[in-house]
Write a structure and sequence with these properties.
By secondary structure, this protein is α+β, with helices and mostly antiparallel strands. Helices cover 40% and strands 16% of the residues. It has a 4-stranded mixed β-sheet. Strands 2-3 form a two-stranded antiparallel sheet. A two-stranded antiparallel sheet has the order 7-8. A hairpin with a 2-residue loop joins strand 7 and strand 8. It is elongated, with a radius of gyration of 28 Å.
């Protein structure tokens, strides 16, 4: 009955208004999110997925709620703003579409009914480095509220109306989702029986990445669902830790610009410093070219330089350098001459 009712109202004025809104949001073609992946995207999508779990402390969760209160928004809107910033940091893109599910029970008569009413919204936002995060939250709030006002318009109708160019390796309009579960969890009890919820293993994913957030007394529990065809588990663990790092920074510096927020954790910074600690002693009494030629004599066949798929040994590099030197001398180049 509900399906018949919904189909019967698609042509009425209310649905036409919903359609006009969504078509206006996607007047310009939706950008493809170019996430850096571990593996080349397969031509035929794989549904094999994995999950990585992490959590946000109660202190950080409370601070996020204070940002929501200050901006007149909700925890979901603050998380959505952070999620957009997180994606912006990895891609450099300033036009990002994120999917989100909505209950679809906007009519009072649907509240007690059993069935699948969930619809999907494609939320389009514009994170850029020059914006303050707090201002971006207000921007996300305004766009999200308007989108929710028009949530009755079926996602599949929008895809059809937009004549989205189909790519079998991608989903239409967006490749990543954010889901916040903050509904009251009903307690279930039986006499003399201990009842607990159990997480079922379900290694399937519909999108490149889906961040699921559950609000609990101890803070926020998060699971980042990913496509195994694109990402390694270790990479997704790092992505997840970066999101926690971003949320922590946001709560400490609400007036910070998006550009100044960093994903790199303290441990990673220390690792980078170690990687870049390349200072080395060398003989001060010799010139650079003398030191280089001494190395040529030691390891003539060792690789000296690599560029893309080309490489030169020390002997080859020395020969090429000498060829260039003689060519310059033939052109009249000598000491103290600018070339």
């Amino acid at each position: 009955d509900y399906a018949v009712w919904q189909q019967g109202t698609l042509e009425v004025e209310r649905m036409e208004a919903h359609e006009a809104y969504w078509l206006s949001v996607f007047t310009e073609e939706a950008p493809v999110l170019e996430l850096p992946t571990d593996h080349t995207r397969p031509a035929v999508p794989s549904s094999e997925g994995g999950k990585v779990y992490t959590s946000v402390s109660a202190k950080t969760a409370e601070a996020l709620k204070r940002i929501a209160a200050e901006t007149g928004s909700t925890l979901y809107m603050v998380l959505l703003a952070a999620y957009n910033v997180w994606l912006h940091k990895y891609t450099g893109q300033t036009d990002i579409v994120v999917g989100t599910p909505v209950s679809g029970r906007t009519h009072a008569d649907t509240e007690p009914m059993i069935g699948m009413f969930v619809n999907t919204l494609a939320l389009r936002n514009a994170p850029s480095g020059d914006k303050q995060f707090i201002d971006f939250v207000r921007e996300v709030k305004a766009r999200t509220l308007t989108a929710f006002e028009h949530q009755d318009y079926p996602f599949e109708e929008l895809v059809e109306k937009l004549s989205v160019r189909r790519d079998r390796s991608r989903n239409p309009l967006f490749d990543t989702m954010l889901v916040l579960q903050n509904m009251e969890q009903a307690r279930f009890s039986l006499a003399n029986v201990d009842v607990r919820s159990v997480e079922l293993s379900h290694p399937v994913t519909k999108f490149d990445l889906t961040l699921n957030v559950v609000e609990v007394n101890q803070g926020l529990h998060m699971s980042l669902e990913y496509s195994r065809a694109l990402f390694n588990a270790s990479t997704v663990e790092r992505l997840s830790s970066h999101f926690v790092q971003l949320l922590t920074q946001i709560t400490e510096r609400t007036d910070a610009s998006i550009a100044s927020l960093q994903l790199v954790t303290l441990e990673e910074k220390q690792q980078l410093h170690a990687f870049n600690d390349t200072a080395a002693d060398y003989p001060r009494e010799a010139t650079i070219h003398e030191l280089f030629e001494a190395q040529v004599e030691k390891t003539p066949n060792a690789v000296a330089v690599v560029y893309e798929n080309r490489q030169l040994t020390y002997a080859e590099l020395n020969r090429r350098a000498n060829q260039l030197a003689w060519t310059l001398r033939e052109q009249g180049v000598g000491p103290d001459r600018i070339v």
